[in-house]
Amino acid sequence: MGTILEARNITKIFPGVRALDNINFSLGEGEIHAICGENGAGKSTLNKVLCGVYPHTDYEGDLLIDGEVSKFKHIADAERKGIAIIHQELSLFNLLSVTENLFVGHEINNGGILDKNAMAKEAYKWIDWLNLEGVLPSMLVGDLGVGKQQLIEIARAIRLTGVRILILDEPTASLTEKETELLHGILMKLRDEGTSIIYVSHKLDDVMELCDKVTVFRDGESVGSADIKDITQDELVGMMVGREISEMYPVMGELPGDEVIFEMKNFNVRERMTHKQVVKDVSLSIRKGEIFGLYGLVGAGRTELISTAYGSDRYIGDGQVFWKGKPLKVKSPVDSLKAGIAYSTEDRKVYGIIPTMSVQKNTTIQFIKSFVNFLSIDKNLEVTRTEEMVDNLGIKTATIETKIVNLSGGNQQKVLLARNLISDIELLILDEPTRGIDVGAKQEIYTIMRELVKSGVTILMISSELPEILGMSDNVGVMHRGRLTCVLDNRAENLTQEMIMEKAAGI
Amino acid sequence: MSDINMAGAGSAKKSIKIDLRKYMMVMALVIIWIVFTVLTRGSYFTPRNLTNLFRQAVFTAILATGMFPVIVLGQIDLTVGSIAALAGGLVGMLTTWMGLPFWFAVAIALIAGMAVGIWNGFWVAYRGVPAFIATLSSMLVFRAVLLGMTDGITISPMPEILKGLGAGFLSPVFGYVLAVLACVVMLFIQWNGRSKKIKMNLPTSSLIIEIIKTILTVGLLFGFMYMMASYKGIPVALMIILILFVIFQYVFSSTVFGRRIYAIGGNANACQLAGINIKASTMIVFAMNGVVAAIAGIFLSSRLNSASSAAASGAELDAIAACVIGGISMLGGIGTISGVMIGALVIQSIQNGMSLLDTPSFWQNIVKGLVLLVAVWFDISRKNK
After folding, report:
1. pLDDT, tens digit, 9 for 90 and up, residues A283-333
2. How far is B131 from chain A (nearest CA, A)?
3. Fewer CB within 10 Å: C terminus or N terminus of chain B?
4. A3-241 and A261-340+424-507, same CATH topology
5. In contact, A466 and A308? CB cutoff 8 Å
6. The complex's ipTM?
7. How far is CA A188 from its chain centroid?
């Protein structure tokens, strides 16, 4: 097999950072090539070079396609060479139908009049090709699950004739296992038809299962490439972090006591727009000093339940909250925060960061009142406390005045943790605390969690990752279709991933 | 690899940060002044004309000050022209027609302004009506209410005491005393801030740069006072905007309320989870804008020495334009009050210069419209780089 794409000595410099430092990378024809690395390792930057987001004048080095040096000025140049990229955030139109999404920008038409029948006919072909059972061309994309949406996005990309190189950036970040399987099936089919695929992912299981080759990036340099069959997952992790992770999860501390600190009774939650019931009569209690893991598949109603109990107005719901044995009236997050309950969202972009603001202002906004001296905010105190948090949590940022959007995902997540931890809280709710974060940052967050528990904080962790649930929780609650099916003791029983998965799948 | 600690290294060498955008508008202003001075052979840059220019800019500047938090919040308010007319009309009716005391009339006008603001805020914050529609409705309704009350009759003259507000001058001596006072306060704030930072072991900007900055500011202040003094003194109008400016500057740079308004404009969803009452904040901002618009209206009626139901029509658009030219993002979350002041000054400088050149008035709107477009385009193209 020949080489279809080669990147030679690529260097890309941002003010103050070498995002790519003399990178070499080559992609063989008809292979699925994984790129792994921690956040900020340079994976996204390379993608942007490959698909023409950064014009050739913005970086040093050569990009060769079929052995010829290619100089892209913009994305269209890369598309003409047959390179397409699927970003982590999908770019579909939720209010348009499957057909309309597939053809947007390249509609079949006769002199400007849309040929709807021809498009619907072709849409059926694609749906069939993607094995999308139960999907009709006329359905709104917003009504489909994330997994199906992703496949439609891929179909849209390869429908443009001559896509030879497909780049996927964290494609399985929000997919269930079943959806991931479906996606992988399609990718293998594409590979067998001759398409070359670059597969950027944090999920090493996926990489091991699907890919042919892997290249590891670290701090803007390529550490090395290997055939998947010649490498173990542990070796891969070792290459990524530059150190062996012997213990991903820090050792558990003391057994929590029996005192119940937080209790939810008879919670029912509905979606705001559709009034669909997503949580049905759930009661749950959490003991002081424990890490309670809440597991469930996507759509099980975990975030809906917990964020409603916290006071978010994302959903409509009712139920009673008891805090240290006494009823707590939660009308809004203000009431929870006052009691000492804080919540960290699973959706950083939409519900977490304030993109217009600096790291410092993002850190202090929630408990800003505690910085007030007479009428004014004490900005010196604000700076000191923020620097403290930055040091304690190991947040990598140029300065605390840097805008938060310029940080990597893992560091943004740490800033959001700092937002909650800058005041003394007693219960910390972490909704998918390590979503979209690299291995190194994950481990750091686990260590922070353990230290918090040691200092007396109780943690409620919602997670979709079974190893994380098993590695961190004292007790595990499992939800299935809006109901809490069981609470398992992770300390006493010898829990396995399979046991939890069975409960989550409702078997 | 984890020992790369960029945080420490970066904050230590915190240098002079230049807000390019802000200085760009100042430069644009200077260029506008130079161009008009040349075109008018010097009659633009005289104490007399500049005094007039500043006085004329005050009305738009007041409205834009109230509009500023609304836009930072990510909202819009089209009612302010109508509120200004209503407030002026109420003062005129209550004093000239009904002979009630001046202070009483002003109080009623301000309360009316706030009431309209609360009405807007209620529909926007608690009933989810888009601000554009809710305030468009109020714009029509409240101007019509005024028209109904006055029957379309222009009220004139305004009470003697009010005339001083729009047309009066403070003696040059007072101006200089004020300038000296301002300098003392400024120096104190700067020195105090610096010594506090040193006490807490925080990095400070270099002393020389701070001294140069201070000298420049003091020079500018006294130059301005001298210029005003060589005509008639400080216009009372300028004092109104100065007080508003100081209040807004403080609230939006140093208080919890101000910080939260910026945050809501940046990401309202995140703010809800962080325990910020978005509805109440929105309501307060609209109410505030109502009061400020009423102040502008009272001021306008005093300057024109009359109040009519057609007064200040279209003024809301000038206010929005001033904000946008001054660098306030229509998407919310970004902008400063000093930018707004410069924006208002840019608009008025162009208008004043063109009147001085006897340009037909339709040209003024053409130029104003194009400047607005270019300012925003410039801002956007700079961000995309």
Report:
1. 999 999 999 999 987 778 999 999 999 999 989 999 999 999 999 999 999
2. 21
3. C
4. yes
5. no
6. 0.86
7. 23
